[in-house]
Amino acid sequence: MRKEFRKLVTIDEANKIIESFDIQPGITEIKIEDSPGRVLAEDVVSEVDVPPFNRASMDGYAVHAADTYEAREDNPIRLKSVVSIPAGINPEIHVGRGEAAEIATGAVMPAGADAVVMVEYTRSDKDLLIFRPVSINENVMHAGSDIMVGERVLKKGTALSTREIGVLAATGRRAVKVYGLDVGIISTGNELEEPGSKLNEGKIYDINSFSVASAVKECGGNPIRYGIVRDDETEIKNVLKKAAERCDIILTSGSTSAGSGDVMYRIIEENGTVLAHGIDIKPGKPAVIGKVFGKPVFGLPGYPTSSLTIFNEFVAPLIRKITGEKEEKTHINAKMAVRVRSEGRSQLLPVGVIRGRVYPVEKGSGAITTLAEADGFIEIPSEVEMVEAGETVSVTLFGEVDIPDLLFVGSHCLGLDTLIDVASLKMRVINVGSSGGLSAIRNGTADIAGVHLLDESGEYNIPFLERFGIRDAVLVKGYLREQGLIVRKDSKISRFEDIIGARIINRNTGSGTRVLTDIKLREIALQRGISFEGLTENIDGYHTEAKTHSAIASAVKLGKADVGVGIRTVAELNGLDFIKIADEEYDFVIPPGLLESSGIKRFMEALRSQEFSEKLPPGLRTYERTGEIIRMPYSEIRK
Amino acid sequence: MRKEFRKLVTIDEANKIIESFDIQPGITEIKIEDSPGRVLAEDVVSEVDVPPFNRASMDGYAVHAADTYEAREDNPIRLKSVVSIPAGINPEIHVGRGEAAEIATGAVMPAGADAVVMVEYTRSDKDLLIFRPVSINENVMHAGSDIMVGERVLKKGTALSTREIGVLAATGRRAVKVYGLDVGIISTGNELEEPGSKLNEGKIYDINSFSVASAVKECGGNPIRYGIVRDDETEIKNVLKKAAERCDIILTSGSTSAGSGDVMYRIIEENGTVLAHGIDIKPGKPAVIGKVFGKPVFGLPGYPTSSLTIFNEFVAPLIRKITGEKEEKTHINAKMAVRVRSEGRSQLLPVGVIRGRVYPVEKGSGAITTLAEADGFIEIPSEVEMVEAGETVSVTLFGEVDIPDLLFVGSHCLGLDTLIDVASLKMRVINVGSSGGLSAIRNGTADIAGVHLLDESGEYNIPFLERFGIRDAVLVKGYLREQGLIVRKDSKISRFEDIIGARIINRNTGSGTRVLTDIKLREIALQRGISFEGLTENIDGYHTEAKTHSAIASAVKLGKADVGVGIRTVAELNGLDFIKIADEEYDFVIPPGLLESSGIKRFMEALRSQEFSEKLPPGLRTYERTGEIIRMPYSEIRK
Fold it and tell me: A3, A44, A58, A105: which to substitute to probe chain B, counting the most B Cβ within 10 Å?
């Protein structure tokens, strides 16, 4: 057996290595309008007085305060109105005793005058009548009384946003020095293609250089993408060298696994120092930390979620420290919704967080949907065997994620998209089929499950609540949908039996559609006197599983399969033919404690609304039971 | 008396007008790397399968699973190793029974093979030895099993950040449609100059077009600055017309007060409709809402804080609604630290928020420092007479403000800047002099006050705690600083008495330096047998108040004054001469409940540190009492 003999570093060791990096961020001067979100690299000292002159802070008349002391509502004093001073000019006049100059808010106080009488307390006839006294300096703002020349108005290290930009403008600054940490980003791998280009055979789109660049930006860094580099030592070396000339930190992804493509490690070793080859926390094993061509370099794992996880755990704190970017938004405490068993080694587990509850997001290795469904990750140290439901955990978020209101887990349906749109809900939809939805309700992770499971008795959904051991949820009747065969217009398939011998695309195990398909297939096997396995062995594509109706339709449309089972809606949307085999009851299962929550209330209102009924796509329809709530014990209801 | 007869609209009426605006945001297509923070204007449906082919999810050997069923650790099976498949190519081979193809993670599964044996469970000699069985599909990720063609991966209205950008890249999207709301921004006023240009007489820098543009951006809008426009009807009209052609919303500021420059109202009336002329909530009186050249227009007040307040109250929610930008970050609930008396009319009161406590920020009308020190504002309806200390209020933040850890109120000192730097604290520093600091401690708003108040007995600070009615704070001895006269090198002034008859720049009332100055002046008045007022009347500039030592030095340096009282530090920093008159004790007052807080602990550590002592600028020095804590009752200590 081939074995690896590699000494992984611990998290603490990795962090010590990272702390030892002495990175000085570059400083760039930018226009203040481009500065929101950046961090000041200089103390800003005002070079002007604000205001720059003694100014009137009210519309009115500039006077000698002493002239007004006797003014009364019923006994106004008279002054000679000499001139009018608008804002923006330098009034080269002197207001003498007994005189007044009309003055606008913000205008320069004329020499002589030491107060402003508000216009409301004056009246003009041939003279100016003043009805109230003012004291010296009243309604006058002195030069520099707001900010004086020489005052430090903003401190180095300040994060700039709206109000700081206002302060900068006020002191006459149009450009400002900010920190700029250039972070080079390189994706390696022969299999990578640039998004937007055609995908050749055997290739996949490069994700990491885009997602990591966005993450770098959120941390206050300036990402510089060097694009995709083939798995070629010379090519990678050249790009690393180029990046090292300009950048303060270099991030690569891919080419770090222990397999045939493990070139990154060797290049770093030959052109610098490898400080860590693998971190002893899942998914850190493929990570590399080192210096190459004099600059710190991090080799991130190739899988997108792993790459972002290792970035957020080890690189993001470093970049934030250097750029002074705030951290508070990226960590939250919340309670585990389910018990999680440790894998026996330290791990960073991707999790979703909805309504303060944390649940693990575990998809296949390298699945991009893990990233789409996870809000962040939690650390489970190797010595922890179990994280219990209800335990408070600290979640490191994948940047500034927009966390939805409700978590839907279950069967995919286009009607659900309509419902979400009508209810204006932010809902995370996880398509794992009806059984997955019921499991999630039982585990306490889902807020709503969407199910359409047919019992062999002919009853939908209710029998399965009991079968899944769900005792305290309500079933909300949803809508009906036509299930059937989806085929191309030129297909010879006309009835369910015809799928035997055809190339099919199947739905995923646990989905209601799969249950329906298998019930129908069992009937045929029974009729033909053969085993179910014997029958399905002869169906080409029986084990090719698609997760959604749309995916079924696509496969048929593109000729990857000749037939699949799905709903009329997607058949019609894709210009395909549809052969109805059943009218399904698509229902929702909801924990009873949530029925009074605002989110579920909006959901229920939308479900029962005329608008939803009208907007439902063809093949789906509401009926008299739509919105009906069935409570436990279900068995009684069934009688 | 001149009076205004104008019907202000209520907040509700203003909001109804704004709700009636039917604004459709534009849609623009941008590269995904530029999309963080934008909102999707399309449903994103995957046009590719992810992965696009059946791929190996481990490094190992692609085999027929059935060939491995008998494999055991102590009894490996032998397969013929036929070829090696790297990632990124299309393997045009067929793996037959009894054969194995070496395969890299991410590579395309060859025809024939239906599983991958991990490399760890194999060994090569002339054949390939397999030590563990695999089942069908093991370590294989099926085409489309992550995302299938036709699947909606992102919903219209989704806010884009790191993970969404990863999903977009994964499905091959390089560009994406996002909402783009163009918001035109115009500053009007003859007195305005562009920051960065020279400030002519009577002019001030334009602040609003920069701060409002930044605020628009934070709401998800696309600000378009039309710069500064003179108070000229034709000019303003032309710019409004130009802005209306391109923009979805127009924001102006200035030219809306009731005085001579009130042209905006007339222009809107002549070229559209004025829907509201003044909103009945302070500072909304100068605001105008209407339509001009077919587009919604908001005339914001000219003062920067007022302008941002009205923007955040009325315009920001509109822009956020249209752009789908999240609101949660801009509102927080917190407790009032002090009682606030209403002004008898509705008002939006600027407030600071530190450690969850809200305190009003009230500077002079139009002060830019209000903006610098306020984090947001609270609404006080007209029917509320008083907001009590401890009451929970909802604060609308001025965008994504960076709220500091601690609030310092008191006397300005450069030593404090050093202390903040050594302690690495984010501290808001409000320079209102020593008395202001003590008031803030008494009111419960400040976390630290910095004081240097000399009692006529010759004792510093402690007598003033009692005088201010502070019974439960501790006094922390700070450092010594040399106070004296700051004069130019060529000055004839050589002792304190010389300031009589000179042009001076004074410190603000309530500052310790002012107290020191007045004590010295009283001594002189006493010696000369004249009244204090009689003496100060003859000091040119006695009533010109600067808030900081730096400002004093600047005024002297620039020749605006001949002498001021301040610390040696700033005299030396400005190349000025210094004539010492006292060694002051600069101390800190801290509520005792905070002594154990992490912020104050860091503050105390820094104060007592060698580093602080060494970094203190010239003229300031620590001494044996530095860091000493004096607790109540103060009177006992004084004995």
Answer: A105
Instruction: Say which CATH superfamily domain A11-24+181-323 falls into.
Output: MoaB/Mog-like domain (3.40.980.10)
Banded model confidence at residue A5, pLDDT cuts 50, 70, 90 = very low
CB–CB of B214 and A161 under 8 A? yes
Tokens 């060097």 appear where? A226
Q: Which amino acid is at A476?
A: V
Chain B CA closest to residue A175? B196
The answer to whether residues A399 and A215 touch, using CB atoms and an 8 Å cutoff, is yes
* pLDDT at residue B150, as a whole number: 75
pLDDT band per the 50, 70, 90 thresholds, residue A25: confident
At residue A364 the predicted structure's pLDDT band, cuts being 50, 70 and 90, is: low
pTM (predicted TM-score):
0.75
E-state strands within A135-294:
140-141, 152-154, 175-180, 182-188, 192-193, 204-205, 222-229, 249-253, 272-277, 288-292
CATH architecture of B335-399: Beta Barrel (2.40)
Domain at B407-638: CATH code = 3.40.190.290
Pairing of strands A99-103, A60-63: antiparallel
Chain A interface disruption, residue of B210, B230, B540, most A CBs within 10 A: B210
Question: Strand (E) positions, A32-166?
Answer: 44-45, 55-56, 60-63, 77-85, 99-103, 115-118, 122-124, 128-130, 140-141, 152-154
pLDDT tens-digit profile of A169-192? 999 999 999 988 999 999 998 889
Domain chopping of chain B, boundaries: 11-24+181-323, 26-50+146-180, 55-141, 335-399, 407-638
**Could you tell me whether strands B427-431 and B504-507 are parallel, antiparallel, or unpaired per DSSP bridges?**
unpaired
Ranges A462-466, A512-516, B293-297, B460-464, most confident? B293-297
Confidence check: pLDDT of A633 > 70: no
Helix (H, G, I), strand (E, B) or coil at B210: helix
The rounded distance, in Å, linking the Cα atoms of A29 and B466 is 50
What's chain A's Rg over C-alpha atoms?
35
Chains A, B: CB contacts within 8 A come to 399
**Are the C-beta atoms of B541 and B504 separated by less than 8 Å?**
yes
Q: How far is A631 from chain B (nearest CA, A)?
A: 33
| pLDDT reported for residue B262 | 67
Return the percent helix, strand and coil in chain B, to nearest 5. Answer: 30, 30, 40
Tokens for A234?
A: 């010379």
- What is the CB neighbour count within 10 angstroms for residue A129? 15
Q: How far apart are CA A447 and CA A425, in angstroms?
A: 13
Report how far residue B389's alpha carbon sits from residue B337's, in angstroms, rounded to the nearest whole number. Answer: 5
Q: How far is A570 from chain B (nearest CA, A)?
A: 10
Interface touch B48/A210, C-beta < 8 Å:
no
Yes or no, beta carbons of B166 and A371 under 8 Å apart = yes
Q: How many CA atoms lie within 13 A of B327 on its CB side?
A: 15
Percentage of chain A exceeding pLDDT 70: 95
Please list every residue in chain B whose beta carbon sits closer than 8 Å to the beta carbon of residue A215: 162
Asked whether this complex has an ipTM greater than 0.95, the answer is no
pLDDT 10s digits, A121-148: 999 988 999 999 998 889 988 887 788 7
Q: Which CATH number does B55-141 carry?
A: 2.170.190.11
pLDDT tens digit sequence for B163-174 = 899 999 999 999
- For residue A402, which residues of chain B lie inside 8 Å, CB to CB? 158-159, 161, 326
- Second CATH level (architecture) for the domain B26-50+146-180: Alpha-Beta Complex (3.90)
Q: Which residues in chain B touch residue A558, judged by CB atoms under 8 angstroms apart?
A: 149
Tens-digit pLDDT profile for residues B401-440: 878 889 999 887 889 989 988 998 888 888 888 988 999 9
